[in-house]
Amino acid sequence: MSRPLLDIQDLTIKLRGQQDERCIVDHINFSLQTLETLALVGASGSGKTTIGLSILQLLSPAMQMTNGKIYFQNENIVEFGREQLVKLRGGQIGMIFQDPLSAFNPLFTIGFQIEESLKYHTALNRKQRQEKILELLDIVGIGDPKRIVRQYPHQLSGGMRQRAMIAQVISTQPKLIIADEPTSSLDVTLQAKMIGLFKKLKKEFQLSMILIVHDFGVVKAMADSVVVLSQGQMVENGKAQDVLNNPDHSTTKKLIQAAGI
Amino acid sequence: MKKNKKPLTPFQIAMGNLWQKPAVRICLSVLILFYFGALFADILSPYRFDNEDRNYSYCPPMKIHMVDEGKPSRPFVYGMLLTFDEFHKRVYVEDKSQKYPLKLFVEGDTYKFLEVVKGNRHAFGVGLPGRLHIWGADSRGRDLFSRILYGARVSLTIGIVGVAISFFIGLLIGGIAGYYGGWVDGVLMRVCEMFMMIPGFYLMLALRAAVPANLSSLQVYFFIVIIFSFIGWASLARVIRGMSLSLKERDYVLVAKTIGISDMRIILTHILPHTFSYSIVAIMLSIPGYILGESALSLLGLGIQDPFASWGNLLSEAMSIVQIQFAPWILIPGLLIFTAVICFNILGDALRDELDPLLKGERPSS
User: Fold this and answer.
1) How many Å lie between the alpha carbon of B251 and the closest alpha carbon of chain A?
2) Do B197 and B322 lie in a common domain?
3) A247-253 long-range contacts, Cβ below 8 Å, gap at least 24?
4) A22 φ, ψ to 5°?
5) CA angle at residue A168 from A162 to A173, to 5 degrees?
6) Which run of H or of E encompasses A160?
7) Mean pLDDT value of segment B78-84
8) CA-CA distance, B7 to A93, in Å (whole number)?
9) Which of B87, B117, B139 is the last residue of a domain?
């Protein structure tokens, strides 16, 4: 039987060097079907981002995955060697971060930084890469891409930077995108635009998506299924509609209430 | 400001501010003059560095005359006659019967400019059999001015080449140690400390002793540079390691990792460039150390060997008080070392004032 695109089994992450039973991520199971959007929801500190990073095997050295399997396209990522991981990161799975200002290196132009990922994951030559970058920036809705490629991150507005970040991630046509609070640092009107952009990109690039959020408003707008976390434990897992309509756990209820839906 | 003008980068702004300071302008001009002299030493010097005339041993700086028997004339020098006074002290007197007019682009010793273009024209000089020593001559009657120009090639480049190599090593080692952390960091830093533990000058002497003595001057130069870089990298590596340790926690480094960029490239593009505002200053401030180090080695006879010139080995003639008393002009190389070192230090300090972000807030706005 073939597995879903991403299948996480019994994922457990602890702080390195601590013998007690407290886990940052506690025996989590969930899976993601191709072209689906899964929302990881929870208050801050509930382990959402940690799960996201563990899928890329980029946990900080202070944390340790003590148990679990992460199957991506039927292969267990946990057993991957260095070279396989490099191909996976960026090439197969891309990650979008919350704060696009700190996610760009302030010393280099936007164009240079998008080109970096193209260099690593495609066989395009310099000229083709330049064309591709302009094309990508156009797709994510940046007007005047020719000017933007030559600008530095601090010269762009927050929304522009977020779009540029998305362009960087989709440049290599990954199968899965992990978006860590992609809309939290934006104002409400931009959030709506960004959600629209994600939906458009999902169709255009055949993306599956893990959405790390705390806002059920975004969940309602985008997610197919929801995993709710509380203090490292999975308290709810189900179709977005079901969870929204019949929340089981108090954490879910609180989060839904906070979003005012 | 004009529209459409490209906005200045912070670095360009800093450079603009620097240029406003008179001290910076002076020091930079002096250094440019020095390096210009070193580059065109072949042409600017009246003689080759090994052209000697024993009749002019310790000849004092010659007077350039503009007036000939009460009438203005083109500049000329008299020949010098060696005589002894009642204390058997050497005294040079001008021989009014020999008059040598100063000429531009005079024919003289043949040289290969920068080892490529052959030539025998010198920017200024006097025709044979006259000799021109505007800054005096040394014990063998070699022209000090010419030797200083040739010596500048060694003394002024050794700092830059040495700094370039040691910074390359220091940045790389520091970057790697900080980025990887763990045992890599531990091993590299212990090696650094080993180098820093040994007093620099003794390490220098020990390393010099390890190198065979009968080498050509080019080889000696090469070895000295390596020895200096060997000593210099450690302290820089430690600082860079600290910076890299904090820089690797930045989000864009994590982003670079999620893109799958290799560790080495992350270190080179996403970590080390952020240390440049520190390292540019450190480079400026450490060049004088190399110039002084070369002088010290040459002074002890372990550096560049006679007849080749460096400011250090020119100064080594001035080791005894008697020679300084009778021929004070042989101290000129020392004065030039002093000037160059001061200039580099002032430039370095000014650069730090501009580039160091920690100092920025505290400075009163000017």
Assistant:
1) 5
2) yes
3) A251/A42, A251/A43, A252/A41, A252/A228
4) -70, 130
5) 125
6) helix A158-170
7) 82
8) 36
9) B139
Regarding beta strands A93-96 and A176-180, do their DSSP bridges make them parallel or antiparallel, or are they unpaired? parallel
Chain B neighbors of A90, CB-CB under 8 A: 258-261
Identity of the amino acid at B284:
M
Question: Hey, what are A180's tokens?
Answer: 């860590």
B356: in domain: yes
Tokens 């520091």 sit on residue: B174
Are B52 and B124 in contact by the 8 Å Cβ rule? The answer is no
Contact A89 B269 (CB under 8 A): no
Residues B310 and B206 in one domain: yes
Low-confidence ranges of chain A (pLDDT < 50): none
Whether residue B156 sits in one domain with residue B108: no
Give yes or no for a contact between B51 and B109, defined as CB atoms under 8 angstroms apart.
yes
Query: What three-state secondary structure class fits A247?
Result: coil
The number of domains in chain B is 2
Shared domain for B88 and B183, answered yes or no, is no
Chain B: closest CA distance from residue A234 (Å): 25
Q: What is the CATH number of the domain that holds B163?
A: 1.10.3720.10
Q: Do A58 and B258 touch (CB under 8 A)?
A: yes
Tokens coding A238: 């189900």
State the nearest Cα–Cα gap between B246 and chain A, in angstroms.
Answer: 13
How far apart are alpha carbons A168 and A188 in whole angstroms? 23
In this prediction, residues B18-29 reach a mean pLDDT of: 89
Same domain, B134 and B166: no
Contact A88 B262 (CB under 8 A): no
Q: Is B260 in contact with A86 (Cβ distance < 8 A)?
A: yes
Q: Quick check: A102 and B250 CB within 8 A?
A: yes
Whether residues A89 and B254 touch (CB distance < 8 A) is answered with no
For residue A87, list chain B residues with Cβ-Cβ distance below 8 A.
260
Q: Can you give the three-state secondary structure of B195-216, one letter per residue?
A: HHHCCHHHHHHHHHHHCCCCCC
DSSP secondary-structure letter at A214? Answer: S
- In the block, residue with structure tokens 């480079």: B283
Residue tagged 């401030």 (tokens):
B285
Quick check: A60 and B182 in contact, CB under 8 A? no
Instruction: Write out the residue range of the structural domain in which residue B354 sits.
Output: 147-360
Cβ-Cβ contacts under 8 Å for B366 (sequence gap 6 or more): none
* Chosen domain end from B76, B106, B139: B139
pLDDT single digits (tens) B229-280: 888 888 889 999 999 999 988 888 988 888 888 889 899 989 998 888 888 8
pTM for the predicted model, two decimal places: 0.78
